[in-house]
Amino acid sequence: MKKHYSIQYSSCVQYLQGHLGKIFSRIKSYRLVTNPQPLKGSPFSVDEVFRALSIRCSVLNLPKMYSPLGVGGSEANAAPCMKSQISNRIRTSLIALCAMLAISINLGAQSTFTLKAEVRPRTEYRHGFKKLINPATQNAAFFTDQRTRLITTFSAPKYDFMVSYQDVRIWGEEAQVYKPTVGSGSAFAAVNQAWANLKFSKKTSLKLGRQEWDYDNVRILGNLAWAQQSRSHDGALLVVKDSVQQFHLGAAYNQDGKTPEQTKLLETFYNVTSNYKTMQFLWYHRDFKKGGLSLLALNNGQQAKDSSTYFTQTLGGIGNIKLKKLKLELEAYYQTGKEAAGKDVNAWLLAASLTAPLGKKGNLVLGADYLSGSSLDDAATQNNAFNPLYGTHHKFYGYMDYFYVGNASAQMSRTIGLIDPYLRFNIPVGKKANLQLTGHQFISPVDIYSVPEQKTTKLSNTLGTEIDLVLSTAITPDVKIEAGYSQLFATESMAKIKGGDYKALQNWAYCMITFSPTLLISKL
User: Fold this and answer.
1) Phi, psi of 405 (to 5 degrees)
2) Which of 168, 250, 268, 275 could make an S-S bridge to 228, C-beta 3.0–4.6 Å?
3) Smallest Cα–Cα separation from 522: which of 112, 145, 75?
4) What is the pLDDT of residues 451-501, one digit of tens each?
5) Of all residues in the chain, what percent are helix, strand and coil, respectively (each to 5)?
């Protein structure tokens, strides 16, 4: 026959306190006590967890007559019950509560998987794009190229990673019926980004792999978003930051893949002449109440044909400040060192802009860029032409890309530099569209000659005037359309450094549509 025991309120409380003490300590260790809101990704709030842990009949699943305080609500009226029955119910309840608490705590530190896509076709008409056209012997170009991307990101409490695969091609470069063979396929199918980011703390992280380095106004380091292929670097990036300032230390060391890894046993010669062999940079940024300041120190190592590596250093920064309704931005960089050709580098860049409101939502920007150049009077061992390196140059020096976009602006192989005062209007059109109108005046900072070899017949330093018109709108947050038209009014001086017929019509037009949907967001 089972032996019955009476359990009074005090003994019940003592029993529960012994089992629940560790749970309350665990809750405090997860810093949940002061958080009344639902835990991230969890259906349970902290208050609900505490209510579930409270010593109640509802938790123990006991009717009132078996309440620890009895029907009368006092210790003296405690109802008799079997200790084993209450113990079993307590254990069952504790197991359920611990499971619920564990779910809440685990879901509070979730990981997120995101899958995005991008399809961006752009149709262009080029009649004097990058260089002057001669209509008597040359015809305009017309084509559509397209960027397609599939982007996966995974974010966890201790690390993140991203893989972005892209395919860039011109419509029609492959036949309608196309079967790829070994060695075939588009030369622009590639991994755009593939990196992992290790989070040492909330303030410190290390990103490793192929990644975009996009800083400030993208003057020196930019992801080249306008170009369909864009720009990314293989390297490492250490980030240390707090709420108002941050340090970024980036480093890269490149080797080509012509020699397979299995046989790459000797030498470090780098065969990719269009890229740096090694590069390091330190970037500092600080926010202030009315503006911000960024400083950059970049060491760029370019390999020469004899396998020697020559280094140039770029030092400078950019700052901005709000003056009531105006915004002033100033920028300065200095370059020194030796370039791959062995010449001593002594170059600089200055830029300034003032932004003022125009109407309720528009603005007006008045600015100027000055990039030093090399004149015919400079020593053969000297290079005074500033190199904006790995920036997004399409953004700055006219949308027709006459300067610093993979095309030389030089006389006798000496880059002339550029003075570019500009005026820009940004005007809202309706609720979703924006019209941008920009005028550039291109001026050479060095003398231009009709016959450079003899330095005879000095020409005007004015190279031309460019007008850029861009209309953009968003159909939905994921679908955007942009169309533009640009025209260049060139001078004889421009023809001397670019070739072509400066008297002919020089224009360019494009239309681009961008689809960028988020396909999936999953909390894991």
Assistant:
1) -120, 65
2) 168
3) 112
4) 998 888 999 999 999 999 999 999 999 999 999 999 999 999 999 999 999
5) 15, 45, 40
Calpha distance 383→312 (Å, rounded)? 11
User: Is residue 75, in this structure, part of any structural domain at all?
Assistant: yes
Confidence band of 140 (pLDDT split at 50, 70, 90): very high
H or E element that contains 425: strand 418-429
Within a domain: residue 204? yes
Same domain, 392 and 438: yes
Which residues make beta-bridge pairs with 53?
Answer: none
Which SS3 state, helix, strand or coil, does residue 41 take? coil
Token reading at 487: 């025209």
| pLDDT digit string, tens, across residues 172-200 | 988 888 776 655 555 567 999 999 999 99
The CA distance from 42 to 99, in Å, is 13
**3-class SS of residue 172:** coil
Residue range 424-443, pLDDT digits in tens: 999 999 999 999 999 999 99
Where does a domain end: 54, 75, 107?
107
Here the tokens at position 510 are 């494009």
**Cα 402 to chain centroid, rounded:** 26
Q: What are residue 363's phi and psi, to 5 degrees?
A: -155, 165
Side chain identity at residue 354, one-letter code: L
How many domains would you assign to the chain?
A: 2
Contact partners, residue 58, CB within 8 Å, separation at least 6: none
Element (H, E) at 236: strand 233-241
